[in-house]
Design goal:
This protein has 172 residues and is an all-alpha fold. It is elongated. It has one domain: Ferritin, CATH 1.20.1260. Helix 4 packs antiparallel against helix 5. It is 77% helix and 0% strand. The structure holds hydroxy diiron-OXO moiety.
């Protein structure tokens, strides 16, 4: 059985994962309207992954005899200045999520909840991967700068990454 403290912390994380999903979905939709097929496919897929992170938490909380709550969410921004601004935001957001996961892990140790601590290790590894990928993309975009040709290739590369997992398509 989960303690009240751990339940509340997990529900807060459920909200953050849901907000991440909405945020990336808004970025994906904007990118699609700009004709950036690869960037939008990548971000649609990323939004789906965040939803999966939320779902995994809800199911875990329920499995442990508490109640995973579906949160109300604020509307994310509709417009973005540029692709590089988007990926700066993605990195910044992922760093914030990592900090929250670490706080959550800390709470489970203080509460001596080793089962939840163990469950959260998946999120710890996931954050390492997500931060590394976001950093890589931010660095690539720095190299691209204002070069339109470079952006074309960046978009094509992201199409490849998203396509490899079959994500991002409207019909999916
Ligand atoms: Fe849920 O991993 Fe990113 O935020």
């Amino acid at each position: 059985m989960l303690s009240k403290k751990v339940t509340e912390a997990l529900n807060k994380q459920i909200e953050l994962e849901a907000a991440s999903s909405q945020y990336y979905l808004a970025m994906a939709s904007w990118a699609e309207t700009q004709g950036l097929k690869g960037v939008s496919a990548f971000l649609y897929k990323h939004a789906d992954e965040e939803r999966m992170h939320m779902l995994k938490l809800i199911r875990f909380v329920n499995e442990r005899g508490a109640h995973g709550l579906v949160p109300a969410l604020k509307q994310p921004p509709a417009n973005f200045k540029s692709v590089s601004k988007i990926f700066d935001e993605v990195l910044h957001h992922e760093v914030k999520v990592t900090e929250e996961i670490n706080k959550l892990v800390d709470i489970t140790l203080k509460e001596k909840d080793y089962t939840t601590h163990n469950f959260l290790q998946w999120y710890v590894s996931e954050q390492i991967e997500e931060e590394a990928l976001a950093r890589e993309l931010v660095d690539k975009l720095k190299m691209v700068g204002d070069d339109k040709g470079g952006l074309y290739f960046f978009d094509r590369d992201l199409q490849g990454i998203a396509g490899a997992a079959g994500g991002g398509k409207a019909e999916a």
